[in-house]
Each structure stands twice: as C-alpha cells, then as structure tokens.
Amino acid sequence: MQTYNNKTQQANNTIHQQGPTWAGMNPEFVARMQLQNRFNTGVDIAKYTAKIMREDMANYDKDPANYTQSLGCWHGFIGQQKMISIKKHFGTTRSRYLYLSGWMVAAMRSEFGPLPDQSMHEKTSVPALIEELYTFLKQADARELQHLFKEMDEAREAGDRVREQAIQQKIDGFETHVVPIIADIDAGFGNEEATYLLAKKMIEAGACCIQIENQVSDAKQCGHQDGKVTVPHEDFLAKINAVRYAFLELGVDDGVIVARTDSLGAGLTQKIPVSQTAGDLAEQYNEFIDGEEVTSLDQIASGDMAIKLGERLIKPIRLANGLVRFKPNTGEDRVVLDCITSLQNGADLLWIETEKPHIGQIASIVNRIRDVIPNAKLVYNNSPSFNWTLNFRQQVFDAWQTEGKDVTEYQRDQLMSKDYDDSALSAEADERIRRFQKDAAAQAGIFHHLITLPTYHTAALSTDNLAKDYFGEQGMLGYVREVQRKEIRQGLACVKHQDMSGSNIGDDHKEYFSGEQALKASGKDNTMNQFAV
Questions:
Q1: Is 339 a catalytic site residue?
Q2: How many CA atoms lie within 13 Å of 524's alpha carbon, on the beta-carbon side?
Q3: What's the CA gap between 319 and 321, in Å, rounded?
Q4: pLDDT digit string, tens, across residues 68-114
C-alpha cells in the first residue's frame, strides 16, 4: 500500500534528481495531489472496480446475505452525493454500486430533448455520462482528503503529534468513493461491430460491467412497455462476444457482462434463424414460433412462407409489418433458454425483466436455470414501473385468501386506496416490501438489486414540494425549513456548496503554485463560514 509518507518520499526523490530548477516544488504537496487523483484513466477505474465486483460475486456465492445494491443516477452530482451519503451513514461503500440507466440517458441526457427508451438517443451520451459520474466521484475523494490534509496541518501547527498521526492513518486507510457502475448499453445500438465500438468507449470511460439485452436494436422498447421484439440467440451471443473482446482488448480481463432477456414480455421476433444441425439453437428458437400446420401447398398463398419443424411444416403467423409471432404462454420457457445459453456463452450475470416484483415467480424461473447452471445469479430491477404498494397488497390478499383468512373487509381491486393504509393487510404488505431485497437474494438468486429511475422521481418530488411552498404562502421559509435547515441538521456536505464544488481544493492549489501571493476564496468574509458542517 502506498502510504502518505511513501508518496512524499518518492516525490522528494524525483524533485531532488532534477536539481535546483525544481527547488520550488514541495514533495508533500505532490503527494497530496497524487492521493487526490488515484485513478489516471477510465481503464484504471474499470480494472479496479471489476475486481471489486468479482469479489462481491464470490461472496454472494458463499452467502446470499452478501447481495449488492445500486440506484440509477442521471448526473455526476447525483451519483457523487449518493456515495457521500452512503459513506457517511454506513462507513463504507462496499457492496453499493451505481447504475447507469439507458432510460434516464434517453429521457434526460439527449441533445434531442426528452426521448422514450427506444435507443433513439446519441450513443456517445452513454460513455459521456459514465465519465461524468467518475469525475464527480473522484472529486468527492479530493474534497474529503483535502479536509484531512487541513486537519493534519492544524494538528502540526498546534504541536499535537498524536492527532497528526491519527489523521495520517485516516489518509493511509482512505476508502475511495469510486465504485462499480453497471452500465446499460441497451440492445447494442446496431450490429455487433457497433456494439463493440460503444462497449470500448464505455470501458475507456470506466465501466467494469455492461448490461445488454436481447431485443432488436432498431426496434428496442423499454422493458416495461409493449411491442418488444427479440433476436435469435446467435445474434445476441455475437454481441456478448463483442463486449468481451472490448474488455480483453483494453486489459480488463475480469470485466462483467450482464445478459438481459426481455422474452417474458416479448411476443415477437424479427427473423427466423437458419438451423444448421438438428437440435441447435436456431431450431430450439424456431420451436417457439406460432403458426398454422401445413399439409398441402394449396394452403400457401402468395408471399407466405413455410418452415419445417421436425416432421411438421408450418406457416408462421406474421403481422402486417412482417414480424413473426411466438406461441402464447411460451415466455418463461424462452427466458430459461435465453439465460442458460447466455451463461454458457460468456455472460456472467442475468437480468430477467418481469412484469411484477413477485419472489415466487422469479424463483420459479431461476430454479430452472440453476438446474443446469447452479451458480446462476441475477441483477434485478426493483422498478419504479411497478406499483409496489398495489402489487404487494394484492399478494398479501391472495395469500390470506388461500390460507382461509377472512378478507371480506378488503376489495382486491381497490387496495391502493388510502383507506387501507392503516390496515393489517397493508402493514404486512409493507413488511414484505421492506424484506423484498433480502428475501429475493436468499430465495431467487438475486445478487444485485437496483432501482433504475429513483433519482428521476426524487428530483421531481422534491422540486414539486419546494415549488408548492416557495411560490405559495411559505415563501423563503419553504426553502429554509424544508431544505437548508434539514441539510444542516442532517450533516449534508453540499450545504457548503462552494466547498462541494471544489473552491477549497482550488485554494490549496493556488497556494501550492503561488505561495503567499495566492488570492484565495476561503477567507473570513466567505459566507460559507456561517455553516458548521
């Protein structure tokens, strides 16, 4: 481990070797700047965080209580504040990641303005957000270390050697805010070469984990919308290969690939793959195609097609746009085949997009996958697209009804009503929601729980509340009472927004570069001094 003293000594040696022309350089200042900028490139970050993620996956295999979590972030500042808060409340960032949502990139980061989650946004906006997130996380490191350096200087000035050593130990044991990002590449933004090129940009920006889905790239839909169209396995596996080659080319040998299947809610395919040998993936995929059995060529009209499935000849059912329909009620079987095939061909983790958060449903699918691949693990979307309150109240209602409990005081289709908020059923539903991540990790193989769009919704909610008060009768009190006073009392670092934006770091640098001539911003007249945080 590179300690503060080691780095200072190394810097001193380098400066000394250059002779008197570098006499103005302070080796301790060099060491501080190096410690504040631990990662020189995005690939350095990807290598560091991939190792963390692999260790977390191994720990989960030992005990499912070691599941991991993340929240989706649409701006570097949001990701930074999230990790600062986690470190403040829990003392460590271990097992907590960031999620980069393609939905939020489309809705909030596109130059076209708000877009639906259909891969219409600029592909370059994805690596740009990864780079932005890590820029803000590295700045969080620099800010926290700057405070420690100041405390050490104050201890020295006071002659308090014990306190100085204690602070130096904190510096040597400093835990970075840089954590793994699971980054959404959608369906790859084109063919496999396009997928490779974008994956490479994402890794160069710092991504150690890339999530890719098995939808048709140019017909991609949000996982919680209708009209999803999947691709044959060979097409999807080619894109998994493309992502792996990108990792290997850049030296991130343990990069993580999440293979997402949308087959549970997808009823269409764009093309019929060509089977080369009996029982191959193409033939297995084609077995799910819905069609009419053909016994005579008279049944084939102009423009129709027919395919042979085993000993049968069928005419696939096609929509007016040429898309081919799958047989009804085959979604779960297609999901299982998708997942097994992906893990057998280079993917590390699975993502199954379901229509509701039901542990029993998820577990029933995962158990079938684990019959073939025992250590299969999921990344699961605790999606805001689910009505969690209604879903879990209905789950409790159904469970109680099955158990023979009296549910006559409840109307199942009205359970969202606030009239039930204080009921026993709602209390049980809330407890199941509270336990959902822990229980699903233990029972349904979920290694990583994420919420895709939480900070989208929190930004809207907090802005709504502030607008209601500030522009209403509360005026400035609406901001002071509901924002600033809470920031101060909860110890939020950003209450000193000048410090959060790097003002004090800049003052230090000015002092390094200019000495006593430095014009600094943090003097006695800085209004930031009004805050104790």
A1: no
A2: 0
A3: 5
A4: 999 999 999 999 999 999 999 999 999 999 999 999 999 999 999 88
